[in-house]
Every structure is written in C-alpha cells, then in structure tokens.
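Run log // design_07
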C-alpha cells in the first residue's frame, strides 16, 4: 500500500503539464535572422519565441496585414517559409507566429471580411508548415480602427450592439474554422481575452449572471468577448486556447498570478454567452514585461535596482507565474535584448535559469 501511494505521487509530478517560457521582443525576429543565427539565439534559456514573417512586395509584415482587406497570397510568404524550413531548432521548440487585429479596418458586416478569414488561413498554414506551435493573437487596438469598440463601428446607426455582437461571434467562428482547416491542433495564445472587457466593465458574478449588453456596449473592447465566444464555439477539439493575460506585465508576487488565474478560468466567463464552454476550454497564461514601462521610466543596465524588476524580483515573478500558469509564460522586452545580451545584465539570465530549473 505504501509503495502504491509513492508511485501515484511520483506519477502526479511527472504527469503535470510542462511549463514553457517564451520570448516576445519588441524587435521580433524574422525567419531569415533565425536561419542565420539560430545557434547564437538559442543560448538564451527560453523554450521558444514569437516571430513574424515578411510578405514579398509589401512594406508591412504578416502580423500587421492579416486582419485587413488586402489579400495575402501564400506565394508571397514562400521566401520566409524556405528560411523557416531550413532553420534547425534545438532548444526553441515552442515557437509562435504573431497575428494582430490590424489594420482592423474591416467592419464586421463588410463583405471583405472574407479576406480576413482567408488571410488567417494563410497565416495558419504558414505556421503549420514551419513547425510552429501556433499563433499569438494580439487583440490590442493599435491603430485608428477599433474593431472591438461598438461606438466606432461603421454601421452602428443600422445595427444595435446586440446585432454587432452576434455578427462578431459569427466572424469568430469563421476565423477559427479557416485556421483549423490549415492547422487543426493549433495553440492560440490570446494576449487580451475575455478578461479585458470583464475588467473594463468592472467585473460581474460568474456564477449567477451575465454582464449585460448595455455594459459591454459602453467599453472600448465590448465586442471582443462575443468574437472570442465564436472562436471557442467553432474551435476544433484539438485546439488549445490560452488567455495569455498581458495585464500581468508588472506582477511581482505569486498571489497576484493566483488571483488572475481565478479571473481567467472562472470570473471572466460572466462576459461570455457560452460560459460553460468558456470554463471548460480557456487556459491561463501570463506575460511579464522585463523592462516594465521602460518607454517612459527608462531601463538601467548598470544599476538594475532602479528598474521595476531587479534580477531577484524578476526571478520571483517568473516563479510565481510558472506556478500558476496552465502552460505558458511569455517575457516581453523592449530595450534589453535576450538574444544578443545588449543592455542585459548577466544577473537577469541567471535569475531566469534559476527560476526555471
């Protein structure tokens, strides 16, 4: 009996899902750079990274073209596909392709939404052929267009919020169907999921009520929840859906990640119209911004104690995130460069390794 208990305990530890740490740099690497420098890049102790791809004949990269009215031809990705196929990854086994909700200038009721769907399928096919684990879906509204803000929709004088919500949900089903047609077992890391509109409306009671349409109609990301509902509804059984929770960027303590995990896995279902499905399928992930707010606070490579995360604090935050995630933690950075060591004190590398191993 004692031997049986020991075996079960060992199996429980061994069978726990592996936690992976991804690198997401502001300067996202392209397949050509990976092909040329992969051995050097893989010295960084990550499990993979977020990458992008050039599109032949276009000024913008794939990440910034998918969600738009201009079609991306598969042939325009052929040079990037060749570079990716020729790259021999040894450490980076969990690589993802970035896809933004950009340029975001196609209304949910517009006929050219079919182009967005086809572009998403092209991106998914590229990721699948390149051996990538999936897509990072960045739903932040960067440009003038605001696809998730009902107040900014082109035909809002013709369609109430409820009609727009149902249309966004339909488009979510169409988008994931195109992605799954090319990549049935894709992993989607959604940087802002249902948790964002949930927080914008001030929360709700996930167990007894839904957040009403009237509340979602007033917030900037109110249409994001129905769109992602559609994604969840039509996703293949083998699709892995992760709310990668960019809002955890500044967290330092495990308790913060634990609270966020509860929000992701349960509370935010109150903005979903398929709450039971939401709670079954949505996994929790976390992002950390190493040089948090360095765009306005700066980054001190000589005296790390002046940064939001000193090395010890970064290691503590990473351990907390890894303890609470369902699989993925991603590290974002703007000024320091993990791949070359530029402006990155060695103590941060040591802290990353110590937190992981």
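design_07 sequence
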């Amino acid at each position: 009996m004692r031997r049986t208990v020991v075996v079960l305990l060992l199996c429980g530890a061994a069978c726990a899902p592996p936690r992976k740490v991804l690198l997401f740099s502001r300067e996202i690497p392209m397949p050509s750079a990976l092909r040329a420098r992969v051995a050097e890049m893989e010295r960084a102790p990550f499990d993979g990274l977020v990458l992008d791809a050039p599109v032949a004949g276009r000024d913008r990269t794939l990440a910034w073209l998918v969600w738009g009215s201009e079609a991306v031809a598969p042939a325009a990705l052929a040079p990037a596909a060749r570079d990716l196929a020729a790259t021999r990854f040894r450490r980076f086994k969990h690589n993802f392709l970035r896809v933004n909700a950009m340029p975001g200038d196609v209304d949910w009721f517009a006929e050219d939404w079919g182009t967005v769907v086809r572009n998403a399928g092209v991106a998914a096919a590229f990721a699948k052929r390149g051996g990538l684990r999936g897509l990072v879906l960045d739903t932040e509204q960067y440009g003038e267009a605001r696809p998730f803000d009902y107040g900014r929709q082109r035909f809002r004088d013709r369609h109430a919020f409820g009609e727009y919500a149902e249309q966004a949900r339909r488009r979510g089903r169409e988008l994931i169907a195109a992605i799954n047609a090319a990549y049935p077992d894709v992993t989607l890391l959604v940087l802002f999921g249902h948790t964002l509109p949930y927080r914008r409306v001030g929360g709700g009671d996930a167990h007894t009520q839904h957040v009403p349409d009237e509340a979602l109609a007033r917030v900037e990301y109110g249409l994001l929840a129905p769109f992602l509902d559609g994604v969840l509804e039509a996703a293949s059984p083998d699709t892995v859906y992760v709310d990668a929770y960019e809002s955890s960027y500044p967290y330092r303590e495990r308790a913060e990640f634990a609270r966020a995990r509860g929000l992701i896995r349960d509370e935010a279902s109150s903005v979903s119209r398929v709450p039971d499905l939401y709670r079954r399928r949505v996994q929790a992930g976390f992002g950390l911004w190493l040089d948090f707010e360095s765009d306005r606070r700066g980054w001190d490579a000589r005296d790390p104690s002046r940064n939001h995360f000193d090395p010890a604090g970064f290691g503590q935050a990473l351990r907390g995130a890894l303890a609470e995630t369902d699989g993925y933690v991603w590290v974002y950075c703007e000024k320091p460069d993990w791949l070359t060591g530029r402006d990155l004190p060695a103590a941060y590398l040591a802290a990353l390794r110590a937190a992981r191993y």
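The two ends are 32 Å apart (CA to CA).
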